[in-house]
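Many introductory courses stop at the sequence. We go one step further.
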Amino acid sequence: MLMQKKCFGCLFRQAVDAAWLLTNDEEKREAIIRGAGRFMSETDFRRTPPELGAELHAMIRNVLEDPDPYLEIKREMNSVTRSLLPMLRERIRISKRPLETAIRYAIAGNVIDFSTFHEISADEIAKTVEEAANRPIIGLDVSAFEAELQKPEVRSLLYVCDNCGEIVWDALLIAELTRYVSVTAAVRGGAAVNDALLEDAEFAGLPEIARVITTGCSVPGAPDSMVSGEFREIFRSADLVIAKGQGNLETMQPAVRPVLHLFMVKCPVIEQLVGLPKGTLVVQTLPEAVS
């Protein structure tokens, strides 16, 4: 999905937010904002928003002289979400439909806003996610999905992760999926805002339940032209693909194969793409015909 007019302001706002979130140095803040202005005036917009976002955040890392300025925020997100694991595991265990419950918590994790994460307590996060998990999820048909997983020809599934924090709860869903198929989980290949890396997959315990690879690129998504050969091969050959979050959705359109997207609608551009209002929790397969 290429840049839309409404994406321009969002990208610049990301830079301004990062300037205030990541440093107290006024000179560096000014350098980030001026750099974002230059970037917006000079860049080629015939790419996806996450690809341009990756370049914008590379500039921010350069100004801050920090290879991963979100590192401490990401670790905090992981720690808080892991503190809630015993409760979520028990709820999945006693659920009459454990796969559905795990799917709900995985999608609910996508609700968390990392920019305010350090300002709210674990109890508030638990409440937010519990409310999200009990909301209607558009397109969620667990019976049909379970039937698909049980087909003899369906043996492999690629699960493309999104952010830190929620990856801990993705592991709960991946554990349920391994009851049906062999799962490969993919994280980003390098620092990309608050997206999950190998370190985060290890923290979430993913290597203990599934094969873990990276996309091979530092984009908050998985654009086909930038991912590694290994990721591309698995993406195309897996019997099923699940992708979390808007960044994956944006970089996988137009689709080269059907992908089951799990996400929350967070912006007007995605509202238009999927025909659902902002704030909607969605399970939706966007096939090759969508552009």
